[in-house]
Each structure stands twice: as C-alpha cells, then as structure tokens.
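Two proteins, back to back. First:
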Amino acid sequence: MVFLQRFFADLFVNLTLGRGISIVMDVALTSLLFYAVLRLISNTRALQLAQGLVIYYLLVFGVEWLSLKVGLLALNSVFSWLRSFSTSFLPLLLVMVFQPELRRMLGRLGSSKLVSSDTHTQFTDVHDWEESVDEIVKSVKYLSMNRIGALICLQRQTGLEDYVETGVRLDALVRAETLSTLFYPNSALHDGGVIIASNRVLAARCLFPLTASADLERGLGTRHRAAIGITEETDSIVVVVSEQTGVISLAVHGKLTRYLSPLELRGMLLVMTKPIASEHRFNLTGFFRKRKPNEQQGGGDGQA
C-alpha cells in the first residue's frame, strides 16, 4: 500500500502534458493488445489453458511469499526453484499451448490483401461466379430434401492446397449433378469434404481439421466440427447439410449459422464470395513474381 502511494505521488508530481499523453497511449495500446489476445483465444480450449497457467503462477508466487513470511525456508526454496524453472520454460510452454491460435493468426496475416496472391481469387468472372453459386445452391437444396450429408468448402484468399492433398483431385466444373453425385451415400467419394476454387471442383473426400471449441450445440457431429475447424484455420466458407435432419448450415470464421433456406444460402454466398478485382490491387506476391520474357523485353509485337 505504501508503494502504491509513493508511485502515484511521484507520478502526479512529475506529470506534464507530454508525459500524460504518453501514459494514456501506453495504457490504450496495452489494453488493445490484451483485448486482441483474449479475442483470439475466446471460445477455445486455449482460454481454459491460459486460466490454468494464471492460477498456477498465482499459487506458486503466493506459497513462495507466505512461506518466506512464516519462515518455512525449505518450502520457500522448493517453490522458488519451481518458479524459476517454470519461468525459464514459459516461452516454449506458451508456443505449445497456443499453437493452434498462433497458426490461425499467422494464416490470417498471410491471407491479407497486402501479401495475398491473385491466384487465390475464388471466381475470376462475374457470370461464372453467379452460375457456380446457383449450381451449389441447387445441389444443396436437393441434398437437403433427401437428407444426404454434404460438406462443401469454398476457397477465398487462403490457399487450401494442403487439404486438397488429403483427398482425390478432380478438377471438374461446378455442376449440381456433380456435387450431388459425389455426396450420394455409398459412393466412392461421399466421405469427407469437397473443395471448390476458381469455378472448379478441385478435390473430393478431403479431410478437414476438427474444431476444439466446447461451445457447440449438442448433437452436432463430425461434419459440422470439420466445417468450423477449417474456417478457424482459413478464411474459407463451408456449406454443411445435415444427414439426420437435412438442415443447411454455413460456417464462416469459426462461427456456424444454421437453419438456412436455399434462398438465404444463395444470398449469403453471393455476398461472401463476390469476385475481387485483384488485377489492380498491389500485393507482395505479384510484386516479386518473375516476369515473363516478353514482358522483360517490353513486348515482342514491335520486334517481329
């Protein structure tokens, strides 16, 4: 208590306008940092692990302080060693605990407009884009009416090549008949998810990571967990059809919206997957991309 009184007394005695602005900015930036970290780990198992770490260090510091005050030197030595040992391995422990959240954060940074690649634009033509959305909605409507489970992942800025490798490559046009056939029960490719990018069905029977969130509705199965999981790792959009109820759901950024009608699904897909005019957008990938020989020579038409 005496320390706090001296601290605030020295603070207000030496306080100037510039120092006051600096203190306000310091507190604001620190608060924003803590808010960003808490938002990153909210609704995940990492939040519980972080709470466990805080409680652990509070107990260690508390027992160490109390044992020193009471005079239990042996107990104080043990907890002092435990504190120093835990602190030395704290950075490694944090990386291990928050590894999924760190991957998600770095993935979002890599998929930002500054460093994104033009090849990750989902649909390059407005007409093809609208036609593909209509075909997807048509297939989802059929699958929902017949209670056939489906998991359709639409790529946006973040590449999904790692997940494509886990399935069977197709490179087919987006057609309602194709999607419905892929998810038909007992067919060779009905398990797993389908990945769509650049107006093409890239692969089927792909494996997606399952979410570790504990705040899901009871009754949601592996298909819905996989939809949420891949949207936590990437910026993709996933359409899910429940095999038991035929309910249509949409997963975006780790959040699941359920009980959608085909019309609602179409509207949301048209908004969320709208083509980006990336040819006029600066990005680091395009800046460092190797130029073609005819571009380096200033165009070959005049040299013919």
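And the second protein:
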Amino acid sequence: MTVRGVTVREATVRGSRRALVVLAPGPLTTVQDLGRRRHGHLGVGRSGAADRGALRLANRLLANPENAACLEVTLGGLEVRATGDLLVTLTGAPCPASVTCPDGRTRGIGHASVERLPDGATLRLGVPPRGLRTYLAVRGGIDAPEVLGSRATDLLSGLGPERPAPGSVLPVGPAPTEFPVADLAPAPEPESGVLMLDVLPGPRHDWFTPGALATLCAEPYEVTVQSDRVGMRLRGPRLERARDGELPSEGMVPGALQVPPSGQPTLFLADHPVTGGYPVIAVVRDHHVDRAAQARPGQRIRFRMAGDHRFTGS
C-alpha cells in the first residue's frame, strides 16, 4: 500500500517479527485496549484506555479493529524503535513527535495522521502542551498476551501486561486485511482552560445536605497531583454530609464522584475499584469521562447538572 507516496511493506521482516522496542517509556506508558467487560462479579474492573474515543480513532485510522491494543502515553517522553516497517498514528493529547531514520535524517510527524515508521527508525514523543494522555497505535495492534479477554494493563489490580521499560519488545500483530481509507482525521484538541463536565445526581446524593449538589456545580474544582488512572482527586468547595457513618461497599463505575470524609471529591477513571464505601454524590455522564481523562494536574473542572443549567452561572 502507499501512504503519502511511500510504499509500505507490511510483511514480516525476514528472520524477525514486527515490533516496537522501547528505548524510554516516559513518566507512564501502558498497553491499553477497550478493557475487560462483564467481570465485575469476579472483582475485576474494566480498565482499558482512559480516553476511549482517542483509542478508537487511532485504530480506525489504521483500519485496525477498534479494540486493538495501543500504547497510552502520559505526558509524553516515550521513545521507541521499529523492528520492521510499520504504520503508526498518534491521537489524544497532541504532542511534538519526530521520527529519526537509520541514516540520521529526522522529520516531524503530524497528529491524528497515518505515518510510516521504517525498519530501524526511532519515534520520540515530547510533552503535550495541553491534555494528558497520547495514544500511539500501530497497524496490527500491540500483540501482548490477553488476560480475561483483554490486553489492558490495570494498575490497581496488576492484571495485564507489565508497564513497558527500556528494552521491552512489544510485538505487533498481523496487519488487517482492510486498508486505511484516510491518512488524516480532524480531531478536537483537549481543552486547556476550565473543563466543563456534565453530571447526573448520584445514587447517594441524599447522604449530603440539600445544597451539596448546588455547591458541586457552583465553583470550579482543581485537579490535584494526587491523580492517576484510578481517579482524579479534586480540590474545591467542601461537600457537606447530612448523615454520619459509612456505607457498606457498593458497586462503582467510571465517572463516579465519590466523597470521603474530607468533603473533597474523587472522580473515578478507568482503573477505579469495583466497589467503594464512600457515598457517590454525582456521576459524570459517560460521554464526558473521556474529556475528564485528559485533564492535567492544576487544571480546573466545573460540573454541570445534565438538563439543568441553574448552577453553571450561564
């Protein structure tokens, strides 16, 4: 096939399998797909890409199945070398990216575009100026072993592939039979200002004072550095309880806003625990969980009650 006038050989390199060799993993790089479904009764969470839309877009650009495994790269810093000729794309948080070929020539590559990574070439990702998580997909997908039907790394439970380290070899699966139909996709960039997230009242909003939901939606909350794939710890107006004591553990979902005794909410993300014992005052609507996953420490978030704009100031 030809991408931007360059013929790409997708067969296995003689004597070796196509792969990505990790030279530097950056602050945090994990293998992710769309996660493990229907294993909650075993105490196993879904995990998977924090920004599912970005992973799906990356795979569509390469004509991969939408659940193919990619690399989720937090705040850039990843450096990989190609074994065999590869096609790759970057989605999610846009970051500076360059390819250095074996002959020493270096070129920049675009975002949300199909790019050639020749055998022996090195791809380097810088720090994204906005957003948090960038997705590196390769045509054929990362062919890590499956655990309970998924190749996702769950940092809370420890299931899935180990985090890539310098020297890790990540095999690439067979190229799909279909070919990419576009070499570029316009995609909105993550927001750098105040991020607005739609919420619904949570199952335990009655554990809080009558004005607590209004308080949640009245002022921004800041994303703290104590945030990860499990959840975002937020700092802002205290959410006052109307009841004392704790709940028996009950099921949790991505987007749940759980409130510990401090009154400062935690927004659960992809690697959230299956159960929790603190009351959930509200739940971020599913279509905004991906947006939340791109919020970086120091960024401010505002919540808007879905279908009710009384608390937004608009």
